[in-house]
């Protein structure tokens, strides 16, 4: 039976408060895990936050429910898992170039983490010192992470795509004594780091052997994984266990560096309790257990991947299968087919890539087979909506349709998956509805590094799912809409045991994020409807204020445009201090071997253009194609019809020559748009749109590029 058909009572959610006067909110029921000195701290420092990774914070226990769970350290959780299921598969992986799956049991996983911790101790790694991990998802990433924690250290992940400057910043900011990387290519990023970071003792390489010449030139500071693991052979267990025992649930266990859309990233300090409590709460509502499987492919330096791939499995014994390093270049589905995950979490672009590939297969189908497939998808889409949104029975013919579509789910390795989640960015409604037609309702999960991952999520059952909403607050937390307007729209804030400790070495940023009542201010704007569902409307810092004084959230309008123009990949709304809104559009294109955009349009876009009389097959051709201009103009008209005011209607547009990418500097490692970078990069194009005195109108490209022809609304 599909998981969305499993009916049950509505689970309790977090408490919701809508209001701006914090003085009248009840204080959190706080049970201290340390002796808290009596003092009046007006800004919450020492009670709700700290910027010192050596300091312990009290655990804020609720009086009942999830928030009242006993605080524990990660070592306690890990050891309980080893005692209960020592031989159960914990981590499954393939060696580079091999097709054979190998595995660590929970006992072997624990032993390896202890071995890494002992090697750290052997090289003089001090308590509370930092280490950095940079590389593709693999067992050594997790082993180094927990090994650092076991040794009373503070590990931090660095995105594998970071350049030398961003890498050096984190190494310097944390003063990491050890860096763990996957390949020798990553080692090259440390050429400048060595000169300015004398505290960096070793760079450990885990996916490749280190040639003797490379090791010799570095004075043996560049070392292979196996060689490093041998360094701790003489460290006694008692010394390691002493370090483990010194730590409490309120101590910092890890740093998560934000992706940094406007400046260098901030180090988010999370405690043992943050990770233990959130990992348990997230896995419990998903119903995870020792028979479940997860595929690890999202960057482990991101909090979402850490909660799903690292901390959640500690509680429930879930097996983690590691995808190949080229997963996002096309091999992810191969891993999914072999691992058959029972829970799958992805970002919008991954869902969209799967959708594109499946649509391409469908487009090649003809005749009766195609008609039957369309019938099955229609019946399934209606059935999912009837069950999730209306609490009714499935549509007639659903059983037969579900059997037919089971083959499609099997083809992508998700036939045994119980729950499907999206996070990190909004997903198109059209993509959600497409997967609904396959019997795969995608739920949203919303959160941030500062709340150790999730805070709001939907569930695939009636009463806990609503299209367009990110879901309802997490159990054991309080969500507040601060400074609401007349419609109840305001800043989304929350507090609970998932809220971080503070920004490492950055009290100013911490004070502006965590208030004196312990509420984390997300910077996101939204509202809560009458059923308790949360809706995001934009970000405070991204608000566009037009020349007429209108406050406009760009993300909402950008999402509507992408819904109306499915051939658009990314876009950016322009209009701050301008007399009207315009938008920059990026067309979808086929990726190359490095997953970078090419000039080739995808098959569905080519088919759409051909159907409308165009022969364009490349982005370059499409940019000067009148047919594309007309389709865009029609789509923008539809988007404008959905605008809540005339001030929120788009008057001009331009199609860019290539898509936004991380390599191009427009996107962060978590695919967030760097609006300042794009505005500067395409400044001339933007100014051209606003320089003409004629009535506002959209134009696909510069008029001179098409002999003066421009589409008009």
From TrEMBL:
Please name the Gene3D superfamilies in this protein's record.
N-terminal domain of ligase-like
List each copy of the AMP-dependent synthetase/ligase domain by range. 79-504
Q: Which InterPro entries match?
A: AMP-binding_CS, AMP-dep_synth/lig_dom, ANL_N_sf
What GO molecular-function term can you cite, just one? Answer: long-chain fatty acid-CoA ligase activity
Quote a single Gene Ontology cellular component term.
endoplasmic reticulum
- Asked whether the UniProt record includes Lipid metabolism among its keywords, one would answer yes
UniProt entry keywords in alphabetical sequence: Fatty acid metabolism, Ligase, Lipid metabolism
Entry-linked PROSITE patterns: AMP_BINDING (PS00455)
Domain of life of the native organism = Eukaryota
SUPFAM superfamilies to which the protein is assigned, alphabetical: Acetyl-CoA synthetase-like (SSF56801)
Q: List, alphabetically, the PANTHER family matched.
A: AMP-DEPENDENT SYNTHETASE_LIGASE DOMAIN-CONTAINING PROTEIN, LONG-CHAIN-FATTY-ACID--COA LIGASE
Q: What is this protein called?
A: AMP-dependent synthetase/ligase domain-containing protein
Organism, as annotated: Chromera velia CCMP2878
């Amino acid at each position: 039976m599909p998981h969305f058909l499993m009916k049950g009572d509505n689970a309790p959610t977090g408490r919701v408060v809508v209001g701006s006067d914090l003085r009248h909110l009840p204080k959190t029921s706080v049970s201290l895990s340390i002796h808290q000195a009596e003092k009046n701290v007006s800004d919450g420092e020492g009670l709700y936050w700290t910027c010192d990774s050596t300091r312990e914070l009290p655990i804020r226990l609720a009086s009942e429910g999830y928030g009242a769970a006993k605080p524990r350290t990660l070592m306690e959780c890990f050891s309980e898992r080893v005692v209960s299921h020592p031989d159960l598969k914990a981590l499954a992986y393939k060696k580079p170039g091999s097709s054979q799956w190998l595995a660590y049991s929970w006992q072997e996983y624990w032993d390896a983490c202890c071995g890494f911790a002992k090697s750290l101790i052997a090289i003089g790694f001090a308590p509370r010192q930092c280490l950095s991990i940079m590389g593709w998802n693999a067992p050594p990433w997790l082993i180094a992470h927990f090994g650092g924690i076991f040794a009373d250290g503070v590990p931090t992940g660095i995105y594998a795509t970071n350049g030398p400057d961003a890498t050096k910043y984190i190494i310097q900011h944390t003063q990491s004594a050890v860096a763990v990387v996957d390949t020798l290519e990553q080692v090259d990023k440390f050429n400048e780091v060595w000169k300015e970071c004398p505290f960096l003792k070793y760079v450990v390489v885990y996916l490749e052997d280190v040639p003797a010449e490379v090791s010799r030139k570095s004075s043996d500071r560049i070392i292979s994984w196996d060689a490093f693991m041998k360094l701790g052979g003489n460290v006694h267990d008692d010394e390691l266990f002493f370090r483990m025992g010194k730590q409490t649930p309120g101590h910092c266990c890890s740093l998560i560096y934000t992706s940094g859309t406007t400046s260098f990233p901030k180090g988010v300090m999370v405690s043992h309790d943050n990770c233990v409590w959130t990992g348990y709460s997230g896995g419990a509502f998903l119903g995870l257990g020792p028979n479940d499987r997860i595929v690890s492919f999202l960057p482990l330096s991101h909090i979402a991947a850490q909660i799903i791939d690292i901390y959640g499995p500690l509680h429930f014994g879930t097996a983690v299968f590691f995808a190949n390093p080229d997963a996002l270049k096309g091999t992810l589905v191969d891993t999914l087919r072999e691992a058959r995950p029972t829970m799958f979490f992805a970002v919008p672009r991954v869902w969209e890539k799967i959708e594109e590939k499946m649509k391409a297969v469908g487009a090649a189908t003809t005749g009766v087979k195609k008609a039957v497939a369309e019938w099955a998808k229609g019946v399934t889409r209606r059935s999912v909506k009837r069950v999730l949104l209306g609490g009714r029975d499935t549509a007639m013919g659903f059983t037969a349709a579900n059997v037919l579509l089971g083959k499609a789910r099997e083809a992508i390795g998700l036939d045994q998956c119980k729950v499907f989640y999206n996070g990190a960015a909004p997903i198109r409604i059209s993509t959600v509805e497409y997967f609904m037609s396959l019997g795969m309702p995608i739920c949203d999960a919303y959160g941030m590094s500062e709340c150790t991952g999730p805070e709001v999520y939907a569930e695939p059952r009636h009463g806990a799912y609503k299209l367009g909403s990110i879901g309802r607050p997490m159990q054991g937390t309080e969500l507040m809409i601060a400074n609401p307007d007349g419609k109840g729209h305001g800043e989304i804030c929350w507090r609970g045991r998932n809220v971080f400790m503070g920004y490492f070495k950055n009290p100013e940023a911490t004070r502006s994020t965590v208030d004196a009542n312990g509420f984390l201010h997300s910077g996101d704007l939204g509202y809560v409807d009458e059923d308790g569902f949360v809706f995001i409307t934009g970000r405070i810092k991204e608000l566009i204020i037009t020349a007429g004084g209108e406050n406009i959230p760009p993300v909402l309008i950008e999402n509507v445009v992408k819904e109306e123009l499915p051939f658009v990949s990314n876009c950016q709304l322009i209009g701050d201090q301008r007399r009207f809104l315009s938008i920059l559009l990026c067309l979808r294109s086929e990726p190359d071997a490095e997953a970078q955009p090419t000039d080739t349009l995808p098959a569905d876009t080519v088919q759409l253009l051909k159907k409308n009389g165009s022969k364009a097959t490349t982005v370059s051709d499409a940019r000067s194609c009148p047919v594309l201009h007309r389709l865009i103009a029609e789509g923008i008209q539809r988007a404008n019809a959905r605008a809540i005011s005339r001030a929120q209607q788009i008057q001009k547009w331009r199609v860019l020559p290539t898509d936004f990418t991380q390599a191009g500097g427009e996107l962060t490692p978590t695919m967030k748009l760097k609006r300042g970078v794009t505005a500067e990069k395409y400044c001339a194009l933007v100014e051209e749109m606003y320089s003409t005195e004629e009535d506002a109108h959209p134009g696909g490209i510069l008029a001179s590029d098409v002999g003066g022809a421009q589409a008009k609304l």
